[in-house]
Amino acid sequence: MVKITFPDGSVREYEQGVTGYQIAESISPALARDVVSCGVNGVTTELNRPINEDATIALYKFGDDEGKHTFWHTSAHLLAEALQELYPGIQFGFGPAIENGFFYDVMLANGQSISENDFPKIEEKMRELAKKDEPVVRRNVTKADAVKEFTADGQEYKVEHIVEDLEDGTISTYTQGRFTDLCRGPHLVSTGAIKAIKITSVAGAFWRGDAKRDQLTRIYGITFPKKKMLDEYLVMLEEAKKRDHRKIGKEMELFMFSERVGKGLPIWLPKGTQVRLRLQEILRKIQRPYGYQEVITPGIGGKSLYITSGHYAHYGKDSFQPIHTPEEDEEYMLKPMNCPHHCEIYSHKPRSYKDLPMRISEFGTVFRYEKSGELHGLTRVRTFTQDDAHIFVRPEQVKAEFEDVIDIILKVFRTFGFEDYEAQISLRDPKDKEKYIGDDDVWEESENAIKEACAEKGINARIEIGEAAFYGPKLDFMIKDAIGRRWQLGTIQVDYNLPQRFKLEYTAEDNSKRTPVMIHRAPFGSLERFTAVLIEHTAGHFPLWLTPDQVAILPISEKFNDYARQVKTYFDEQDIRSYIDDRNEKIGRKIRDNELRRTPYMLIVGEKEAAENSVSMRKQGGGEQASMPMEEFAKRILAEVAEQLGKLD
């Protein structure tokens, strides 16, 4: 018998060799019908794998992240199986599950191509194969046999992957029908659970992400166990298109990109700059009671700075290349991180235990070289500004300070209406320690500090092995927006390593020299990404205190432009942000255009309003309409802003 421990701590005994499916069936037939994979000792695996020793188990449905990953991983193989039948001679690259669905990179033979017109036939072939309910069979193979098998099938990319990346004794394949793929798994037991299928897009992708290698065709898709789920997803996609921050940002004139300036380098326009500055001010207000000292550091640094920090070794290939000056052997780098600069600020004079915690904050602009194909509006750029801070503390202060940062992040979320969020503790992968710097005891201490802080704050955080930063574990917050999409925003990281690398120290009470601990934190993550998420969450309808233009003044004709200017002058005195739309257009066109600009209030002014010193108010979205003296309207706006900002205190 083996003892199986469930997530709630309960324990049941089963015969050795029991499978995840049998365990689910022993609990309830309904659960067995819904479960798609299981976690055994923290590792996601197939439901038909035997369990031969005592273990912990979690049973995953499609609604769980692990369940979705299993479902979409098998769906990627189903896509490949369909493509193999439809396009003879096709070669396969990689085909992983992703956050929303899956993709497969393929090289088509004989001048073949795939376009949107081909999506229906691919979907139909996938449905045909899924209906066969083909079993997905795992097989462990030697490296020699894997090379032989995939060479015989003409799969050059798979062979290269086997030869260059895989070690003998770690290689497995999965077969369904007439398709065999090189894969670690996990997978569904069979394909029959895949009921609803949609191919979503096609794009180009370089083999291994290298622009010097072959360009493959990348086919994206998504699947569900029920048609209703697919229908709901497609509705969400349509809503997401309407909320696309690139589209709304253009309509609201918030930001732009220029090919001459360079790819992935956003330019903040005047209205977007107003939004950005208000975001900075609100964070300053939130963190003011916690004693942060704001600094400004250069946008470049000597290469040796990043060698010392370890960033050059770990991120050098993903950064802009060193800048060479006329001085021999003098090299600088565009700043990829703010933390090394803040370490230098800490070390510029002696520190005592009385100086700690020391909290340094900066809206610091950094530079990372993202590949062209990965750039996306404000969410993936080559330069961005982090709402960064680094807190230097004594070891015994870590947990309390960490909890204060959690409070700041959750207040930011409440401020902007992000009520639905998840937390994730990212730990080091103990099986791959070469990816990280620092001693085992240091990692254990910092990981425990995060777990204890979350427990004391009542945060039920998910544990992710292998997702830590190279210098320390972290706590990440994922929010759900208005249409249910997940975004990673706030982050907190505990770092015992950088202070050691920079030889930072403080004088303790016993006059000994000790090394501080460093906490990294960014509640927004970056101003660019946060703005993009906020645009899509609100569909551009920012709260009144944040929106760049609070009021649009629309004169009915040019005869009333002078009165419109009189109204604007009064609003300027009241610190109300307004503009005049004095174009020679009909009032209906002006209303439509300003609806598109998402201005919260429109004031129509004509003969009656000019005579009565009043305004005719129209609220964004065709809502409330009313006439009132302009002084009364100004009081209304100021009261609404005061109420919103009052909730932030």
Q: What is the compact description of this entry?
A:
The chain is α+β, with helices and mostly antiparallel strands and 649 residues long.
Explain what the structure shows:
There is one protein chain. The chain has 649 residues and is an alpha+beta fold. It has four domains: 2-61, Beta-grasp domain (Ubiquitin-like (UB roll)); 66-240, 2-Layer Sandwich (Threonyl-tRNA Synthetase, Chain A, domain 2); 255-538, Bira Bifunctional Protein, Domain 2 (BirA Bifunctional Protein, domain 2); 551-647, 3-Layer(aba) Sandwich (Rossmann fold), CATH 3.40.50.800. Helix content is 35%, strand content 27%. The protein has an eight-stranded mixed sheet, sandwiched between helices. Strands 2-1-7-4-5 form a five-stranded mixed sheet. α8 packs across α16 (527-538). The radius of gyration is 29 Å and the shape is globular. It starts with a strand and ends with a helix. The mean pLDDT is 92.
